[in-house]
Design brief:
heterodimer, A: 385 residues, alpha+beta, Cytochrome p450, 5-stranded mixed β-sheet, 3-stranded antiparallel β-sheet, 12 strands, 16% strand, globular, B: 103 residues, Ubiquitin-like (UB roll), 3 helices, 5 strands, 17% helix, binds protoporphyrin IX containing FE
């Protein structure tokens, strides 16, 4: 892996064409790597289906959960009504009060961080931030985050105790739905789902758990790695905060460029519905397809100088949040966190000194890519930019 | 300030009497269904796509090059397509009517 902060792990693959055959943890996959091809495949539900329990994430998740995740593991048109059930919660970040809460939370965490001699960003800042912010999205009491923080960095498998964590999450979710069933009319995420109907029929418990499971899992590592990477950026691009301080209009463009460069979710799966040729790769029915967002976002035919972090890049049609019907429901929340973080860090003139880091590397036979950090120890200083 | 009408996918007419700033922001302030403006107005997401009523095209003007690059990626665009984040409301646009494109 190169030493550069952002790494295009797929340029060799793209040089071979829009798709390549790869083996991932022993599974043969067809990986789509060209920007236009990934975008199109994400929108071609008849050919490349999401209607496949446990098989949308790569690697697949049969052994870490017992329910189909919703609404991600289903296809349009059915998907639309299911997505609509959770949309009001996921649009909460668009309201000004939500932005104020996120700002207050970030200010508090930055205050604490600058007071210390050093801070381990991943566990002591990004994890509490992710968990506490998620309580705002779910509209539950902020104290609920304490338990979520106690689950550690990886909901399913945290290296610290080596145990499979999936069942801890599922037990917790069941308990929340038991409670929610007793509180009709409550506005929190669990109550919304517990009393929701599709075509006049209440959701089953299994479906409720499927929604909640995805909201916890999908919004955890991605946000933790994103936040950690923003802090790392302070060490890599020390002049960036001064530029934003001078021109705050750079905040939204920097945010988008940041998501393009970091692309926290490398790829996601679909299931091929018929034997077909996928951009020259003969792909049997039922083989999984990888939609490689992390390759698409560095496609030189769409992004000029893709390895350059250009804080004013415009247009920037990156697909870090996916494309089409399944476009990330949590993107408003994630974008708000990064924009607010950039604004506060620049306003306060925060700089960072790197003391220790352990990369979080996705390492496979066919690619190796850093998606964030296992550990990132920094010394933060205020008013130094 | 100008008056702007949004026609949503369901055919509803939603009128903003006090439109100011970017058309995307106006739509967001009025909770117009089908306009997300997810990226904050920087030509990154195309979730604020509208189709300008033909009689308003000349006054609203054509998409910028950056905007067009993004529109070219969308499936359901035509010569009336614009990203509403790139349209600044002026007095001249008083009475503007746009159709909201599906997300
Ligand atoms: C930086 C942060 C994030 C990134 C990069 C990201 C990435 C993605 C991507 C690429 C998809 C598309 C999956 C597909 O096409 O099959 C997706 C879907 C989804 N994400 Fe995120 N995500 C992030 C944060 C979040 C957060 C914070 C939440 C919730 C709290 C969340 C919840 C979801 C849900 C529910 C879906 C499924 C949408 C659907 O099927 O309609 N994500 N995400």
């Amino acid at each position: 892996m190169s030493g550069c902060p952002f790494h295009d792990a797929f340029s060799d693959h793209r040089a071979k064409g829009d798709a390549v055959p790869i083996t991932f943890d022993g599974e043969d996959l067809t990986m789509i790597v060209g920007f236009q091809a990934v975008r199109k495949a994400a929108r071609s539900h008849g050919e490349f289906s999401s209607d496949a329990p446990f098989r949308v994430p790569i690697p697949s998740e049969e052994d870490v959960r017992s329910v189909r995740q919703l609404p991600i593991e289903m296809d349009p048109p059915e998907h639309k009504g299911y997505r609509a059930l959770i949309e009001p919660h996921f649009r909460r970040p668009l309201a000004p009060e939500y932005g104020e809460r996120i700002e207050a939370l970030l200010s508090e965490l930055i205050d604490e961080a600058v007071e210390r001699d050093s801070i381990e960003i991943v566990r002591d800042l990004a994890l509490p931030l992710q968990s506490r912010a998620l309580t705002y999205l779910f509209d539950v009491d902020e104290s609920e985050a304490e338990e979520w923080i106690s689950w550690g960095i990886h909901v399913f498998r945290d290296g610290e105790d080596g145990a499979a964590k999936g069942s801890v999450l599922e037990d917790y979710i069941h308990q929340k739905f038991d409670e929610a069933e007793q509180t009709p009319g409550a506005s929190d995420f669990f109550s919304t789902l517990a009393h929701a109907e599709i075509d006049g029929t209440r959701l089953t418990r299994e479906q409720c758990v499927g929604f909640a499971n995805l909201a916890f899992a999908g919004g955890r590592d991605t946000v933790i790695q994103t936040v950690s990477s923003v802090f790392y950026l302070l060490t890599e691009k020390p002049d960036l905060m001064a530029k934003i301080q001078e021109n705050p209009d750079l905040i939204p463009t920097t945010t988008e460029e940041f998501f393009r460069m970091v692309t926290p979710l490398t790829h996601i799966g679909r299931v091929n519905t018929e034997d077909r040729d996928v951009h020259g790769v003969s792909t049997p029915k039922d083989r999984r397809i990888s939609l490689c967002w992390a390759s698409a976002n560095f496609d030189e035919s769409v992004f000029k100088e893709p390895l350059e972090f250009q804080e004013d890049r415009k247009p920037n049609p990156h697909i870090a949040f996916g494309s089409g019907a399944h476009t990330c429901a949590g993107s408003h929340h994630a974008r708000l966190i990064v924009r607010t973080l950039l604004r506060l860090l620049s306003e306060r003139g925060i700089s960072a000194q790197l003391l220790e880091k352990i990369d979080n590397v996705e390492s496979h036979e066919y690619f190796e890519r850093r998606t964030g950090f296992e550990k990132l120890v920094l010394k933060l200083e205020e008013g130094s930019v | 300030m100008a008056k702007v009408t949004f026609i949503t996918e369901d055919g509803d007419h939603v009128i903003a009497e006090d439109a100011d700033g970017s058309l995307m922001q106006v739509a967001r302030d009025h909770d117009i269904e089908g306009i997300d403006g997810a990226c904050g107005g920087v030509c990154s997401c195309a979730t604020c796509h509208v189709k300008v009523k033909a009689e308003w095209l000349a006054k609203v003007g054509k998409a910028t090059e950056e905007e067009q690059d993004l529109l070219d990626l969308e499936d359901d665009t035509d010569e009336r397509s614009r990203l509403s984040c790139q349209i600044e409301i002026t007095d001249e646009l008083d009475g503007l009517i746009v159709e909201v494109a599906p997300l």
